[in-house]
C-alpha cells in the first residue's frame, strides 16, 4: 500500500460508515489524502467540496451538487463537514501540511 493510500484509508476510517459514498470511492479519498498533505489542518470546507466535485465529475457529471460550494443550500454544504473533520484529524495526528 502506498503512503497516499495509507493516508486515504486513515481518512476513510474517520468518516462514519453510513456517510461513505456508494461504489468505489478510492480516488476520492486519495484526493482527500493530497489535501491533508498539502494543507494539513488548514483544509477548509470549500477544499473538500472541490475535491468531491472533481471526483463526482467522473462518477456522475450531471449530479445536482456539482456547483461551487457557496451556491449550494446550507444543508448540502454541511454534508462535507464529516469529511473535513476526518481530514483535519488525520493531518493533525500525523503533523501534515505544516
Provide a brief overview of the structure:
With 98 residues, the chain is mainly α.
Characteristics of this structure?
98 residues; mainly alpha; 5 helices; globular
Protein model, in words:
With 98 residues, this protein is mainly alpha-helical. The protein has one domain. The chain is built from five helices and no strands. The longest helix has 15 residues. The model has no long low-confidence stretch (mean pLDDT 96).
Q: Topology of this structure?
A:
Layout: H1 3-13, H2 26-39, H3 45-59, H4 74-78, H5 81-93
Globally, the shape reads globular
Please provide the count of β strands: 0
Q: How much is the average pLDDT?
A: 96
Q: Note the total helix count.
A: 5
Regions with little confidence, pLDDT below 50 for 5+ residues: none
What is the number of domains?
A: 1
Distance, first to last CA: 24 Å
Measured by DSSP, the beta-strand proportion falls in under 5%
Give a short account of the largest sheet: none
Order of helices and strands: HHHHH
Amino acid at each position: 500500500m502506498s503512503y497516499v493510500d495509507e493516508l486515504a484509508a486513515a481518512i476513510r476510517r474517520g468518516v462514519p460508515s453510513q456517510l461513505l459514498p456508494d461504489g468505489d470511492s478510492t480516488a476520492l479519498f486519495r484526493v482527500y489524502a493530497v489535501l491533508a498533505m498539502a494543507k494539513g489542518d488548514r483544509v477548509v470546507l470549500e477544499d473538500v467540496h472541490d475535491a468531491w466535485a472533481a471526483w463526482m465529475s467522473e462518477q456522475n457529471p450531471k449530479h445536482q451538487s456539482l456547483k461551487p460550494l457557496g451556491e449550494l443550500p446550507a444543508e448540502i454544504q454541511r454534508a462535507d463537514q464529516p469529511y473535513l473533520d476526518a481530514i483535519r484529524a488525520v493531518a493533525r495526528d500525523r503533523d501534515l501540511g505544516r
